[in-house]
Write the structure tokens for this entry.
Amino acid sequence: MRPQDRRLGKRPHLLLSGIVLGTMLVAAPAQAGLPLTSAQEANAGLISGYQVSTGDKLRITVFDEPTLTGDYEVGDDGAVAFPLIDPVDVNGLTTSELANAISNRLQKGGYVLVPKVAVEVTEHRPFYILGEVAKPGEYPYSGELTLNQAVAKAGGFTARANKRVIKLQRQSAKVATRIKLDGTPLKIAPGDTIIIQESFF
């Protein structure tokens, strides 16, 4: 297969998976038992250093190797298909760690004598916001995003929205967390699913 055939291609839209995930979280019978934390604690729990994952679009540069340099996307299996080497599992890797992994494989395979590789995220995976907002769904992630900015992208809260406690499913976490909003800006990461529930008070 030619290198260019394994590069960035069209992927299925991620909206459906986000809605399904959000629906499952909202409908879960044990949701009242989810851990409750503050926005400050939730921010502190974010892993330092951006970790590449499914849906990210990358610019991978192999210096002095124009046939290998190009745009790539992390597939649904969490791997990047790169020319000459087996697919590289990227989940949990930073961009520098991914660059090192590609460099090591190119060198060990004898394809490039002293490879110098750089990886840049050109487009982050989206985030999802569901529930009591005007336009729930999938939204592109850019820059550093807070909850208020995410809600604004979705057209704002509805009149029924609970603005005191929200549910947040980090892509890096196994379970959702209830977060008490106390005025501290809540940081949203790529791949996060935000659930705004209805207020009953």
Q: What stands out?
A: Confidence is low (pLDDT under 50) at residues 1-6, 9-30. Residues 95-108 form the longest helix (14 residues). The longest strand covers residues 117-123.
